[in-house]
Amino acid sequence: MKIAQVAPLWERVPPPTYGGIELVVSHLADELVRRGHDVTLFASGDSQTLAKLEAVCPRALRLDPNFREYSVYETLELSQVYQRAAEFDIIHSHVGVTALALANFVPTPTVHTLHGSFNNENKNVYSHHHKQSFISISNAQRQVDLNYVDTVYNGIDPGSYQFFAKPQEPAYLAFLGRFSPEKGPHHAIAIAKKTGWRLKMAGKVDVVDAEFFEREIAPHIDGKQIEFLGEIDNVQKAELLGNAAIALFPITWREPFGLVMIEAMAAGTPVIAMSMGAVPEVIAHGETGFVCQSYEEMAEMIPRALELNRRQCRQHVENNFSVAQMVNGYEQVYQKMIQQRISQNGHLHAAKITF
């Protein structure tokens, strides 16, 4: 198959530090190439991929001091994609609402993976284009009535994550993610303080979250019980999660997937999380972690989580959230949509002849 993968331009593919969408796109594009498909990746120019790379900006926009308006570059990217639509059997968009309008004007089918959540603004756009083809990354994500062709869970390469048979001593809890209210880092701190556990935290602080960080996080960082590591690379991330006794996922919103959970479990670390969004679909409750109804319950589950089998945590990821399984799911969607187009074209041709 000739496949176009369309990635956001904010981070490179794969991301050097934080960037869940870009990591998924990287795994997907590279594995499709390994399986013999002709893949073109539309992404930032500093991306590293086995696919053919097409870029409208030399590097990830987040790192470009000269960048002013994201929509300009995204418009250029999508213009390039859809001007070349005839070259592809299918276009796979990972950029959200901006591809919806253009997808209607070319015969090449587009499938949209929904990487984010719905809000009052974007759900109106999605509803307007509800007949297009969408892939949800969890069943919990399906909050708007759309033409969902499948649910394909995100996948990682477990082999790239070292397995940690036991946590580091002295033991600690880990939090990894953006320092924003919806990710709940302030709840992670509260849990650590309530239970007396050490907490190591890592992740980026976006400009929009700077005030939240200074108000709710910074005053608690003492370098002893509460340690802030900043934005760390993939090697440091694997070590942070793998050496932890438990990973906390204290979200406050309907997270559509939560890649950190499977990264932690791949390293052998059980996860305690709030029962929101896709959490019950990702964690095997009582086996690889605990799905909780309150932050108080999260704190209470720590002793029980310490008794869980770390090898079983990794096996859960290998069985359910590997790159191979993710790409199998996407391949089936591509084949289904291409066959539908061929069938529709055949019916149209037959109808013209009959007429």
From TrEMBL:
Keywords assigned by UniProt, alphabetized: Transferase
Gene3D superfamilies on file: Glycogen Phosphorylase B
SUPFAM superfamilies reported for this sequence: UDP-Glycosyltransferase/glycogen phosphorylase
CDD domains linked to this entry: GT4_AviGT4-like (cd03802)
Domain Glycosyltransferase subfamily 4-like N-terminal: 18-142
Residue ranges annotated for the Glycosyl transferase family domain, each copy included: 165-314
InterPro entries on file: Glyco_trans_1, Glyco_trans_4-like_N
Protein name, as recorded: Glycosyl transferase
